[in-house]
């Protein structure tokens, strides 16, 4: 290697290190972007039937994900605040908190959830404890909000341009082909990632629909005091919770059962708890267990083992934190595809694999008695 090539190589290494450090800083949003890209790529391709350009299709995909998710979360937060206020008022929990927690000592009543009510509470000083808390932790809250919106911006931009220019990136990677090993490995990895992660999205949608139907059927049978509140919202949140490993949908239907059972138990109508137990049976069997047994193997990709995939979803967040939920299955697919596609050829195995006949059977004499 001459001096010019050495200088260029050193410069390339420095640039690669700088990019790697930058990617590590944003590893969480970049991982989520790759996850979303492979989850929605088939949808992006399907929109070609509408004769839309690639950029317009990418915008439609992101809007299709963002708008329902924002509306769902906003609706859930509003309902949670309204129901929490009603529960606190009904059972006089504010008086108990004021008697035992000094921070609530100056709060006698909760303000009405309206612009006029909140402004009146601010004028009367009822919001002073909350304002003081926000002022004392302003730096932390500002940093938390800014980090969230920065990561969200990275996710949107990277996902958008992966959908638009993913083909160009693929062609650039295939330029490093060596005896078709790189091409075969990248194509197999690309196809398996799409199968696994798109199957994940389908699994969320299917579980949400099953949960909505199951909760509505339960409400049709159960008495009004033990009905599931907002069954459509609860079912949609159950589908989203299926992404969370180990606990998964239990994050939704167990609190729902508690919310339904507590008012009944406090009023002494314990006979109605039989319906709550029935709801738990429906949630565990119909919503949680059966879809996990039936749907997950079907939607888990073509070659990736279902058990390993479940371990990846479980252990990823434990080892890497929240983004491990997205990073671990991607890493599993990349590693398993390498072991199945590229590694045997790098170690000198026959490219034909199991379809090839043993060398001894290629001689006619071996077939004679």
From TrEMBL:
UniProtKB keywords: Membrane, Transmembrane, Transmembrane helix
Subcellular location: Membrane
Gene Ontology CC, one term: membrane
Predominant location category: membrane
Signal peptide: none
UniProt membrane topology term: Multi-pass membrane protein
Segments crossing the lipid bilayer: 6-38, 59-82, 144-163, 195-218, 230-252, 272-290, 310-335
Family (UniProt): Belongs to the autoinducer-2 exporter (AI-2E) (TC 2.A.86) family.
Name of this protein: Htr-like protein
């Amino acid at each position: 290697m001459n001096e010019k090539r050495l200088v260029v190589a050193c410069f390339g290494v420095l640039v690669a290190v700088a990019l790697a450090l930058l990617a590590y800083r944003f590893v969480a949003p970049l991982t989520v972007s790759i996850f979303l890209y492979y989850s929605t790529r088939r949808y992006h391709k399907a929109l070609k039937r509408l004769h839309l350009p690639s950029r317009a299709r990418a915008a439609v995909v992101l809007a299709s994900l963002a708008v329902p998710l924002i509306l769902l979360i906003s609706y859930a937060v509003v309902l949670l605040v309204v129901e929490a206020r009603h529960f606190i008022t009904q059972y006089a929990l504010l008086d108990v908190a004021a008697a035992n927690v000094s921070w609530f000592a100056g709060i006698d009543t909760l303000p009405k959830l309206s612009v006029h009510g909140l402004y009146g509470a601010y004028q009367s000083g009822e919001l002073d404890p909350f304002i003081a808390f926000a002022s004392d932790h302003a730096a932390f809250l500002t940093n938390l909000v800014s980090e969230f919106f920065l990561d969200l911006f990275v996710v949107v931009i990277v996902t958008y341009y992966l959908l638009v220019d993913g083909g160009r990136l693929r062609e650039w990677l295939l330029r490093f082909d060596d005896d078709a090993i790189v091409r075969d490995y990248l194509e197999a990895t690309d196809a398996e990632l799409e199968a696994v992660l798109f199957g994940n999205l389908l699994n969320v949608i299917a579980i949400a629909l099953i949960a909505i139907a199951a909760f509505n059927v339960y409400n049709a049978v159960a008495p009004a005091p033990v009905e599931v509140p907002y069954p459509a919202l609860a079912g949609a949140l159950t589908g989203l919770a299926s992404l969370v490993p180990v606990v998964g949908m239990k994050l939704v239907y167990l609190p729902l059962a508690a919310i339904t059972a507590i008012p009944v138990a406090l009023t002494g109508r314990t006979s109605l708890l039989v319906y709550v137990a029935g709801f738990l049976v429906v949630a565990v069997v119909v919503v949680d267990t059966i879809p996990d047994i039936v749907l997950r193997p079907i939607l888990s990709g073509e070659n990736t083992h279902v058990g390993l995939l479940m371990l990846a979803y479980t252990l990823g967040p434990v080892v890497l934190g929240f983004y491990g939920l997205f990073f671990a299955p991607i890493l599993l697919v990349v590693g398993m595809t390498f072991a199945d596609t590229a590694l045997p050829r790098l170690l000198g195995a026959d490219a034909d694999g199991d379809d090839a006949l043993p060398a001894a059977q290629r001689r006619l004499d071996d077939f004679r008695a």
